[in-house]
Specification:
The protein is built from 12 helices and 7 strands. Helices cover 41% and strands 9% of the residues. By secondary structure, the chain is α/β, with parallel strands linked by helices. The chain has a domain at 120-369: 3-Layer(aba) Sandwich (Rossmann fold), CATH 3.40.50.1820. The radius of gyration is 21 Å and the shape is globular. Helix 1 (27-51) packs across helix 2 (55-83), helix 2 (55-83) packs across helix 3 and helix 8 packs across helix 9. A 7-stranded parallel β-sheet has the order 2-1-3-4-5-6-7, with helices on both faces.
């Protein structure tokens, strides 16, 4: 993987992002590795003890048990979504099955492949400084370098129980489209959302120092959108160009009643912490992108951010948003548009048409397994 983006930018002019504690293994990465190992050992031991099987057969049975457990977890989320379903029209059976399978694949890939091996997949963020734009154009990067020089960097904020590894697929698509993208891992995993604000503020310092930009675009998935809103409430919007959220429980979620940790409790509907967040400043352009079939945030009305624009993407699960070309198209459309004026109740937008698919093609074959389109 190149040390800088675009690939033909001189490496000497584009140092890696100054992430703090880069050499320390992330807490979630170690925890997931250990839990997966212990889980497999437990199931394999049961199979060998009660089934009198070989080691290879026991490992295979253990893997099947692990997959079945995660399938059951997805089934529980969709059972909650069905119980709290809103007035949105039902999807055709085929599209519903594809959506559920896509969400299941997204869960497996995120928590069994990406997050346990974050450093293998992610590497350091590639943040080219604006001062190098002219030199970049001279070396043939052309429009890509010019765009990097004009645009504010994007900072991706992950959701509950995740890490920066969750952005592996989407980060590369935004980079291909000409954006400079940074990430952050929020730790410890189960603590108050307020405890993430100082690390986020320091990460914004790092990104602005590395790029020479004055402001960043905050993109938050799930709880990450609440982290961004809490940051804006404490520090203001002077260093934030706009706020984009993906499947964020802006008004809580009934599923959060099953969550653990202070951050899980903070995402329950009608809790005091959520109510204290208030609306985004009218001076900041904010857009809430969500699916009315979200299986982690329900009812769907709780996905709306009062005072912000909203955009629905039909037939997509909560985790599958991280691997959906339709979400990439929605983000690119929102990132490139001029600042939108919005009224008190916000505006509703239609899903963008795939007229810019050429910008998100590179290596996008894996997206088909997690995009619940018909």
């Amino acid at each position: 993987m190149p040390a800088c983006w675009p690939p033909n930018y001189p490496a000497s002019q584009c140092p890696p992002s100054p992430e703090r504690n880069r050499n320390r293994p992330p807490m979630l990465e170690l925890a997931l590795r250990l839990s997966l190992l212990l889980e497999m050992a437990f199931y394999a031991t049961l199979a060998m003890h009660y089934g009198d099987t070989s080691l290879a057969t026991a490992i295979a049975l253990a893997l099947l048990a692990m997959l079945a457990l995660r399938a059951a977890a997805i089934a529980v989320t969709y059972a909650y979504a069905w119980a709290y379903r809103g007035p949105s029209p039902s999807l055709p059976l085929r599209q519903t099955l594809l959506m559920v399978l896509g969400e299941y694949a997204a869960m497996l890939f995120t928590f069994m492949v990406l997050s346990p091996f974050e450093r293998l997949w992610m590497g350091a963020d590639r943040l080219p400084p604006r001062a190098g734009t002219a030199r970049l154009n001279e070396r043939g990067a052309g429009a890509a370098g010019e765009a990097l020089g004009r645009r504010p960097p994007i900072l991706l904020i992950h959701g509950y129980g995740c890490s920066r590894a969750a952005w592996w697929w989407l980060r590369s698509r935004l980079e291909v489209a000409g954006w400079s993208v940074a990430t952050i891992s929020l730790e410890p995993i189960y603590t108050s959302i307020d405890n993430y604000l100082e690390p986020l503020d320091r990460r914004i310092d790092d990104v602005l120092a590395a790029t020479g930009a004055e402001r960043v675009v905050l993109v938050g998935h799930s709880m990450g959108g609440l982290v961004a809103r809490a940051y804006l409430q404490r520090y203001g919007a002077a260093r934030v160009a706009r706020l984009l959220t993906l499947g964020t429980p802006h008004q809580g979620s009934e599923l959060a009643r099953l969550g653990i940790g202070e951050n899980g409790r903070q995402m329950r509907p009608q809790n005091a912490w959520l109510q204290a967040l208030g609306k985004p400043s009218p001076a900041l352009d904010a857009l809430a992108i969500y699916s009315p079939q979200d299986n982690f945030v329900m009812p769907a009305s709780l996905l709306e951010l009062p005072g912000a624009r909203k955009q629905e993407i039909v037939g997509l699960g909560h985790l599958a948003m991280l691997y959906s070309p339709r979400v990439v198209l929605a983000l690119l459309a929102a990132l490139d548009e001029p600042r939108a004026e919005r009224g008190e109740g916000g505006e509703s937008e239609t899903e963008p048409q795939p007229g810019r698919a050429d910008q998100v093609k590179a290596g996008s074959g894996d997206a088909n397994i997690t995009d619940g389109t018909a």
